Amino acid sequence: xxxxxxxRLRVTTPRLELRLPSPDDLDALADLAAEGVHDPELxxxxxxxxxxxxxxxxxxxxxxxxxxxxxxxxERWGCSFVVVSDGRVVGTQEIAGAGFAVTxxxxxxxxxxxxxxGRGIGTEMRxxxxxxxxxxxxxxxxxxxxxxxxxxxxxxSRRLGYRDDGFEVLSRRGEAAESxxxxxxxxxxxxxxxxxxxxxxxxxxxxxxxxxx
Length: 213
What we know:
The protein is of the alpha+beta class.
């Protein structure tokens, strides 16, 4: 698609491919959401979208992607990749920026289908978008956040070299919950071997990046 080249962007790792989803990918991602993303007794998300019934979770997963595409601008964008392992969609990894041309800062968020958790995929897919951010887009910072009881997400941030960046208190299911913030600096980042970015050049203006800079 010449006018929306983001749809051809790919980030690859030793085990994974991250891409904007096709209709079939969206169906597979929606099925994963319907199956469940986490223990129902816990809530790792600030917006509790997984409290919805399975069919509503599935439909909402697809609608979220459509909303991101329709709202995309160089000033504010959210790029939600599907994560593919061995030909199967296993989850989604987002990278987002607001005023990126000035701030050079991105944020990330993700989820994995429950049957694909505990295999190191979460670390690898976040590494992929950090490679895109720092080596592809020229970011200076990447931020992330997780509730204090989301030990898996906290472990990924620490493993990848993020620094503590404070905390905030959010309402979660009607109760106050501490969310910890993390920040990764460009100078603390080195992309491991085996990671690649494909089709980025035509996409740079859509990310607020001047290709000639």
